[in-house]
Amino acid sequence: MAKITKSKEWDKRRKKNVCKIYRKIRLVAPTNMTVLVLGENGTGKEHVAEKIHMMRKRMLVHTWGGNVRELKGTVRSAVLFTDGDVITADKLEFEAPMLSGETSLSLKNEEMEKKKIIRALEQANGNRSLAALLLGIGRTTLHNKMKQHGI
After folding, report:
1. Which pLDDT does position 67 carry in this prediction?
2. How many domains does the chain have?
3. Which of 29, 40, 141, 144 could form a disulfide with 55 if both were Cys (CB 3.0 to 4.6 A apart)?
4. pTM for this predicted structure
5. Alpha helices, DSSP H only, in the chain?
């Protein structure tokens, strides 16, 4: 009976560690970063390298046509709308690049703007200064937007 319990515990730890590794593979695969896989013989280094390589080949490439400020705004927006630890491609808004005069909070419609403000306030636990920072706008602008949307 003790062997069965030990085996189950070992399997649980192993599955947990494998999930961590695959999460890291998913994070690094779409990047152009150089990855050094270290480990003892027989630990699956080749498997990890192969997975990264396969996932990298299948990723769609998107060239960024905007400037750094616009990229920063897009990433902030993705962070606001991501519940977990990983930002997925569907959270990144690549379709329409911002015009040069727009800020990261400029949106196509008012409802989306309201959702972003609410999400930023939730992320900041109600701290308006932090929420404004997350949105890439000033605290006064956030206050005016909240008033405008009835938040």
Report:
1. 73
2. 2
3. 29
4. 0.36
5. 2-28, 45-58, 68-80, 110-123, 128-135, 139-149
